[in-house]
Amino acid sequence: MTIPDGTPVLRLDRVVKSFGGLMAVDHCSFDVEAGTITGLIGPNGAGKTTTFNLIAGVLAPDDGDIRYRGESIATLPPDRIARRGLVRTFQTPRIFARMTVWENMMFATPEPAGEGMLRALFRPAWKRQEEKTSDAARDILTFVELEPLANELGGSLSGGQRKLLELARALMLRPQVILLDEPTAGVSPTMRRILIDRILELNRTGTTFLIIEHDLDMIMRICHKMIVMHYGKPIAEGEPQVVRKDPRVLEAYLGGEVA
Amino acid sequence: MTEFLQTSIFALATAGVIAVSAVGLTLSYGVTRFINFAYGEFLTMGAFFTLILAGAGLPLVPAAIVAVLLVGLAGVLIARIFYDPLMSRGPFPLLITSVGVAFILQNLLRMFYGSDPKRFPVPLMRPWHIGNLFFPKAQVGILLVSLGTMLAVHLLLRRTMVGKMMRAASDNEMLARVSGVDTRRIINITWFISSLIAGLGGVLLAITQVAIQPAMGWSFLLVIFAATLLGGIGRPYGAMLGAIIIGVGMEFGTAYIAANYTYAFAFAILVVVLLFRPQGIMGGIT
Amino acid sequence: MTVEWIPFLTLLGTLALIYSLLALGLNLHYGYTGLLNFGHVAFFAAGAFASALATLPPPGSAAYQELGARYQIGFGWPLPVGMALAAVAGGALALLIGATSVRLTSHYLAIATFAMAEIFHSFLSNEEWLTQGVYGISVVPQPLKGTVIPVSQYPYFYLLFTAITVFALLFLTQRLTESPFGRVLRGVREDELAARSLGKNTPRVKLQAFTLGGALAGIAGSLWVHFIGAVHVGQFVPLITFQVWLAVLMGGAGNNLGVVFGAFILVAFRESTRFLNNIPLLDRFTAANPTFVPSLRFVIIGLLLVAIIRFFPDGVLPERHRKAIGTRQDRRLS
């Protein structure tokens, strides 16, 4: 395993988000170091998914700042954040149901050729690019073992296949950081092994992961650092083995829900 | 000043008609979660049934009562035939189906009764005068009936078991189901009440506002949408508030800005609400 | 009564082509991008009036005197300019409506577009300097009629002209939708948040689709107004919007050829109901009740809307699945 280079690629600085008086994220600060896998855990309602939505730009923070590679992304819309290489998946995979697996992949191309209204009319202007994108799509589909399903509709996939496709689709953007929201929830053991395997392999080649996970055993096995959220802010962070024994964490989990 | 007060009197009567209609729509949205484009047709049916029964010799008020009850039954029947089979398929098929139902109902009426505008056989009544202001009896009557309807809806929702179940279903359908509310029955009752109120709205609308013809409800539909959305969809008390604002906006817009754009004022308010506060004043349900 | 088949089919073909264009526009909105546009007729009307006013002889000119009509705006430009302006008018109105409301979701967008179409209708009805209000303008130019093309042959000429225009636009639309641009539209339709999270500027994409579809409807307005030779506000009722919806749903949303087919079915059905008057027994009834047949027509259109969405939600020609293009090896072999 390569040694994480340790500089923060993503930094949350006293981020605040409330919904109608309810503080979902309360002065939340943490760093995600480049090249690591960071686990984000906490009881239900701790604000983990809200934090994801804030980082990804779906929500704008009420206060505080979010910096990605040193630049503030707190006010950027989701599409611009994704184009910068910070891509997320969803708790319930959002697959394009009436498009094929291959089209789901093609959609995510970062190359704009043929996506402009006028250039779209001239096939020669984008045909070559389309072939290149398609090759990349096939490679990634092979990597996640979905290539045989390339021509199936997204809507016909199983839950686990959807999780894999969503990860594969995110990879089309050649991301530096991937946010995964419960990647193994509801996934069959076989599929789960493939998923974890691929996450580790991507991480070895330099991709940073921030992962929300309820399966504590799994996340502790794969992550370098764990952040425990409770009532909208981190109450503990550090190496998994250390965090696990932290009394505050035990209390948050036992006092709330047992994960 | 006199003109202002006089306009206010008409505005309140208009608001009353809108409020009745909007409350009916919002009640059905609360339980069924789709916007019913055929709702205007139930207003039209209320007016037509009344006219037909009055033509058959019933005095106007009993005719209206029977007509409104018939519209309520028609509402349940139409919902069972057209909407129930689609309830599990999301809002879009229901939306299109309701447009189709609107076409069917409106044109069935036109097939058999033609498009000529008709009126209720209401005798001419002298208005009451107070100072410089005059209070037409029909407008005052509309206002009283509207207030009575609002009160009835309030009592229904707050004091009866059925009303409580309707509110529960409207707040959280799943929760209501697991806690033993018979949703099937509640949906039927809601359609009945919602359609019945629509029929009443149509009768009130036809007394003063518009002539009775097959398109009357369809043309009024957006005004009702405006009040409903302004108040926050699915919120009966919001609909009442929304109706007052729309009614006042329409009458004052007509009186003071441009007479030809009466309905357009309501539509403009509707668009502004959708753009800036789609959840409405009272926070609509989704 | 015998039917003059050739003129009837010519009329039917022309109308069906115009509705095809409206359907192609709505298909861009709903079929590809998932936008519930319930105000399509407004773009049709904008194009119709734009083209009429652009081509009418200027008030005060000799040609104006000769027509003996009354209207206040006319530029006397040739038809192609009128059509271009119709596209601009339809597109601009769509852009205006879209800029305020494409961010609304599903049924809220439906209501907003429906309301804005009504506001536009209200505007056209009331601003008589522009539209001559309820009287309308009955002398809209029909280019080449009686000069180059004999009056008796004009319907055939116009059918040909409409066919060429519509098929050219069908070709362009198909090009557009079967490109990466079209793929972005469909992704937005399937799941806007996912599309946006994958780096697409979805508000801009939706607005582009809305504007393009509006422009197509505008051109349909131009074709319509020069076909009829008259324009007035009463032609542009919400009924048109929902007939186009029926054409799109019947033919197959998300399939350009499908919606054209749907438009032909719709118009063929609608125009053939006139023969109901010829059915024995029914004719006695309809004679006494002139609204019977036209109303029956719309009862059936309503029933079709209900039936299609319930039993054939994918339409006659459902959306095709786009197969993956070949692998590297495939390309090397070919």
Please describe what this structure looks like.
- The complex is a heterotrimer of chains A (about 260), B (about 290) and C (about 325).
- With about 260 residues, chain A is α/β, with parallel strands linked by helices.
- Chain A has helices spanning about 50-55, 80-85, 100-105, 115-120, 125-145, 160-170, 190-205, 215-220, 240-245, 245-255, and strands at about 10-20, 20-35, 35-40, 65-70, 70, 85-90, 175-180, 210, 225-230, 235-240.
- In chain A, the strands form two sheets. Chain A has a six-stranded mixed β-sheet with strand order 6-7-8-3-9-10, sandwiched between helices.
- In chain A, helix 3 (about 100-105) runs parallel beside helix 6 and helix 5 packs across helix 6 (about 160-170).
- The model of chain A has no long low-confidence stretch (mean pLDDT about 90).
- By secondary structure, chain B is an all-alpha fold.
- Chain B has one domain (about 1-220).
- Chain B has a two-stranded antiparallel sheet with strand order 1-2.
- Chain C starts with a helix and ends with a helix.
- Chain C has about 325 residues and is mainly α.
- Chain C has helices at about 5-30, 40-55, 60-65, 80-100, 105-125, 130, 155-175, 180-190, 190-195, 200-230, 240-250, 255-270, 280-290, 290-310, 330-334.
- The longest helix of chain C is centred in the first third of the chain and has 28 residues, at about 5-30.
- Chain C has one domain.
- Chains in contact: A-C, B-C.
- The interface of A and C includes residues 77, 78 and 94 of A.
